[in-house]
Write a structure and sequence with these properties.
The chain is α/β, with parallel strands linked by helices. It has 2 domains: 111-115 and 280-527, no CATH class; 140-276, Rossmann fold. It is built from 23 helices and 15 strands. The N and C termini lie far apart (119 Å). 34% of the residues are buried.
Length: 535
């Protein structure tokens, strides 16, 4: 009989030494337990079977896919959580980790959209007939430009137009050194005077000083009548000029009407304001640097003209959100300033009428209701904010707040220290080139920047409806409106208040109508012929 195992019907299995080790466990008493090794072996055998291709191939694929899907989702959730936590702490524009600009602000691209229209164009070219001829000048005009930077700029532009109306020579204007800021800067310190003279040579003669022939002539002092028509200058004032040869205007603010002025003179006003009156090279260069720093990585920014400044609050009598001591300080300043005619003012009534500058809190809530995200860069183009709380309410919602003072280095700002009109020129450049300009009080800077941005192509400029905004704000503060109701109504109010083309509104009185330099359409902005025919 054969000794073969097959022949005897029994099969003996050789156990690898490692198998004995794999299935031997030690119990809690330190004794080896081998009684369960057959059960473990069956489980391992089943898993190995599933892991092998063959009859279990479909189960293997399904199991692998499920495992991959679950692990991927788990890793993704962890990464998103970590990313958001880290990015939430990055508030400075120098941070190494930021959401890319197209992600940060693409959530609502409409809030940054430019409103420029291809239906309009700048139309300030004067015809050759209207340019300066060879005729002798009728005399010389000296002017004292009064007010702050932008009031002086608009006044000087009007004086250019007046010189044209009278065929007179204009001596470089003298600037105001007695206003609130008492800035000693002269015309040449702020403006490129050679560019000013060259740009206007086809319209008027600009001189550095009176020529020797009239240097000893005593000028005839005159404060022109406010909001005057062209006939006042080329008839009444021209007679005085021809008689005295030199006339000195003591004021330049609002001395020419907004409307009813010859078309060629309106175009000259815009040419002077937006092209001839250019800042000095050192101001323009630094201003451009600051704009580029704000726009690094292609990120947009808002220029916020937050006129919550001591002089403005004292002048308007507005004291909302201030302490009693601060309000009294403003009242004393108002009574002390002689040329401010209005002394007794009810600040609460003025605020309800929408005649007060927005507070920092109101500006922050306005921006939030207009759906600007909290990581938006905001550049304050104004002076120091008054009050013990300062910008706290704004920075709580919008931490990325900048001034020219923290955008520029100390060395860069050194030439401009104590030269408030030159610093205001830097702010003007920052406001002009912002992606969005929001002004909270319709003063001279707001008018000048708004008009310039319209002239450049209807760049987005938000003109807040403060009377209705204050009403809604008080309603929300008094629990009469939810945030959703409040924000929806605020957005609805401002659908048509973001700088789109709208013809200048003519009023019953020059003081109550829209300012020419705040909206130079019509006059300096025209419809293209093909669109004009289709109207």
């Amino acid at each position: 009989m054969s000794n073969s195992p097959l022949a005897t019907g029994t099969i003996t299995t050789r156990r690898r030494p490692i198998d004995s080790v794999e299935y031997v466990e030690e119990n809690g008493n330190g004794k080896v337990n081998i009684g369960q090794h057959h059960h473990h072996r069956r489980i391992t055998s089943s898993v190995n079977s599933l892991m092998r291709p063959g009859r279990y191939l479909s189960r293997w694929i399904f199991g692998a896919l499920m495992l991959l899907m679950i692990s991927t989702m788990f890793v993704k959730i962890i990464l998103i959580h970590l990313f958001l936590r880290v990015n939430a702490t990055m508030t400075s524009h120098h941070d190494f980790l930021q959401l890319p600009p197209h992600v940060m602000h693409a959530q609502n691209s409409e809030i940054w959209a430019k409103l420029g229209s291809d239906k309009f164009y700048k139309c300030i070219d004067r015809s050759s007939i209207k340019t300066r001829g060879k005729s002798m000048s009728n005399g010389y005009i000296l002017v004292h430009a009064n007010g702050g930077l932008n009031q002086m700029r608009s006044g000087i532009s009007d004086m250019v137009a007046v010189a044209k109306l009278m065929n007179a020579s204009l001596v470089l204007p003298m600037l105001d050194h007695k206003s609130f800021w008492t800035d000693p800067s002269e015309f040449k310190d702020i403006f490129d005077w050679q560019h000013f003279r060259k740009s206007l040579e086809d319209d008027i003669e600009v001189l550095e000083s009176l020529p020797p022939s009239v240097a000893n002539v005593k000028p005839f002092l005159k404060a022109p009548v406010s909001w005057s028509k062209a006939s006042y200058y080329n008839r009444d004032i021209l007679k005085i000029l021809k008689r005295h040869k030199v006339i000195e205007f003591t004021h330049t603010d609002s001395r020419l009407a907004n409307n009813g002025i010859p078309d060629s003179i309106q175009k000259l006003r815009c040419h002077a304001m937006y092209e001839a009156i250019r800042f000095t090279e050192k101001i323009e260069q630094l201003g451009t640097k600051l704009v580029n720093r704000l726009k690094e990585n292609g990120e947009p920014y808002i220029a916020l003209h937050l006129r919550y400044e001591k002089d403005m609050l004292a002048f308007t009598g507005c004291n909302h959100n201030l302490t009693q001591k601060e309000a009294e300080e403003l009242r004393k300043l108002r009574y002390k300033t002689k040329h401010w005619k209005e002394k007794r003012i009810n600040g609460t009534e003025k605020r309800v009428l929408g005649l007060c500058p927005m507070t920092p809190r109101e500006a922050a809530i306005f921006l939030e209701s207009m759906e600007y995200p909290s990581n938006t860069k905001i550049c304050i183009v104004a002076g120091d904010i008054f009050g013990q709380n300062g910008l706290k309410a704004l920075q709580e919602r919008y931490p990325n707040v900048y001034y020219h003072s923290n955008l520029a280095t100390e060395q860069e700002l050194k030439p401009f220290m104590q030269r408030h009109n030159q610093l205001a020129a830097l702010d003007y450049i920052l406001a002009l080139h912002a992606d969005v300009f929001l002004y909270t009080y319709d003063g001279n800077m707001a008018k000048a920047v708004r008009g310039h941005r319209l002239f450049q192509g209807f760049w987005k400029t938000i003109n807040p409806d403060k009377q209705n905004f204050v009403r809604l704000m008080d309603g929300m503060d008094n629990k009469k409106l939810s945030w959703k109701e409040f924000a929806t109504q605020v957005r609805g109010l401002h659908v048509n208040r973001t700088g789109a083309p709208n013809a200048r509104v003519v009023g019953h009185s020059p003081k109550l109508e829209e300012n020419f330099y705040a909206n130079p359409f019509p006059g300096c902005i025209c419809l293209k012929p093909k669109h004009e025919k289709s109207r």
